[in-house]
Amino acid sequence: MPFVNKGTVAIAYGVPNLTPTYSGAVGNNLLISPVYWSNPATTSPPGAPAGWTTGGATASGFACFASGGYSTGVGLYWQIAAGGSASAAINASGSGAWAINALIAEFSGYQTSSPQDSAVTAFTGSAGPVTSGTITSGVPAQSAELIIVVYAGPQINSNSNIGLVDPISGFTTLDIQQNNQNHAVGITAYKEITGGGAQSAPETWGQTGEWAAMTIGFKALTGAGGASIAWVSA
After folding, report:
1. pTM above 0.85, yes or no
2. Where along the chain do its domains lie?
3. pLDDT tens-digit profile of 156-189?
4. Alpha carbon of 148 to those of 40, 128, 141: distances in Å?
5. Which site in 23, 93, 147, 173 is 20 to 30 Å from 134, CA atoms measured?
6. What is the pLDDT of residue 3?
């Protein structure tokens, strides 16, 4: 399960859009684009990029919770790579000082037609002032799957490390953003499973506030001997 490389996460502040880009994708591999964001004026999520599928069991495909004047949310989009370069033009709606982070990651060994396991998808979070949370997926439809977890942490508008615990127990970190000054704080992680059962991903952070999280599963190819992460970029 070799990790090859990771670029800098795409970050936008004060504007409602950003576009992470990616090159060198292998055709028929799985591309994912996790997003965490905050906004003091709206609970509307960023729209799905053209050519990407909104991950999740709900029409909106996102989790969002508000506290202390901020709305904090997460989302995840995916597509099957055509090969070569890819981009995800994420355009948010509403006003206010948006903070948005996004990246693109590539995985190999997953189904090329309807790879998302809707039974695994879960959304959760809290507007209450807390310092911990747990998201638990549904039971995977098959034994070999990729589980993606995305957390967004409190947006307190202070130049400080939010204190997200890294790594999430049992998961490998793809990206973590701790500083909540001009950033949307959050963590994205993955786990490749070879046995069934719901997957739990507990997280804690050091500053009290709201949080949002989601988890999505992707089905491995039948008979695959284990999928692998190929590339991460922004």
Report:
1. yes
2. 10-233
3. 656 678 899 999 999 999 999 988 777 788 999 9
4. 27, 24, 15
5. 93
6. 46
Q: How far is CA 170 from CA 82, 147, 166, 167, 200, in A?
A: 31, 11, 11, 8, 9
Taking 50 as the pLDDT cut, the residues of the chain under it are: 1-4, 59, 224-226, 231, 234
pLDDT of residue 1: 36
Alpha carbon of residue 14 to chain centroid: 21
SS3 sequence of the chain: CCCCCECCCEEEECCCEECCEEEEECCCCEEEEEEEEEECCCCCCCECCCCCEECCCCCCCEEEEEECCEEEEEEEEEEECCCEEEECCEECCCCCCCEEEECEEEEECECCCCCEEEEEEEEEEEEEEEEEEEEECCCCCCCCEEEEEEEECCCCCCCCECCCCCCCCCCEEEEEECECCCCCCEEEEEEEECCCCCCEEEEEEEEEEEEEEEEEEEEECCCCCCCEEEEEEC
| Tokens at 44, concatenated | 């509307």
